[in-house]
Specification:
The chain is α+β, with helices and mostly antiparallel strands. About 40% of the residues lie in helices and about 20% in strands. The strands form 2 sheets. A 3-stranded antiparallel beta sheet has the order 1-2-3. The protein is globular, with a radius of gyration of 15 Å.
């Protein structure tokens, strides 16, 4: 699943787009930028494909934001054999898992800092997600292990 959130910096908003594997809650796609654009979500999906590959029957869930409903994004998904799923109109609960992740990101990390630049925020958010969240943070849904450890345990 995928969504976008905003991080305040001294230079203005930094837009953070993430793709999460619903099975392990691991962030498998991450793109950040100063514009809320279709490129942001396309690059997130491309990164997720690069990290995960594409399984037959892959479903990519998001809300109904204009970036996700654009012709370019729909074509990218179609060209890769990915079925798009979107939240019901006005139903934020359909995307609750990634919304919960963004809440965690902000309360555990982002709100602890005052970022001067977007670049500073990018480095900090990247480090939180890649070093801490995916590899170290215990997750109640995952039997109190990190997403990385949960996947490793499942493979074994």
């Amino acid at each position: 699943m995928s969504d976008i959130t905003y991080v305040s910096t001294g230079e203005g908003w930094l837009y953070v787009s993430c793709a999460m594997d619903l099975f392990s809650r691991k962030i498998v796609g991450l793109c950040m930028g100063e514009k809320l654009s279709v490129d942001l979500v396309e690059n997130t999906l491309k990164q997720a494909i690069c990290h995960r590959g594409i399984s037959k029957g892959l479903i990519y869930h998001s809300d109904r934001g204009s970036q996700y409903t654009s012709e370019d994004f729909e074509k990218l998904a179609q060209d890769n054999g990915i079925k798009l799923s979107m939240s019901g109109k006005g139903n934020c609960y359909d995307n609750a898992v990634i919304e919960s992740f963004f809440h965690t990101l902000k309360t555990e990390h982002v709100y602890q800092y005052k970022f001067t630049t977007r670049e500073e925020a990018k480095r900090s958010v990247f480090e939180y997600i890649e070093v801490f969240y995916n590899r170290q943070r215990a997750h109640s849904f995952l039997e109190y292990v990190s997403p990385e450890e949960y996947e490793r345990n499942w493979r074994e």
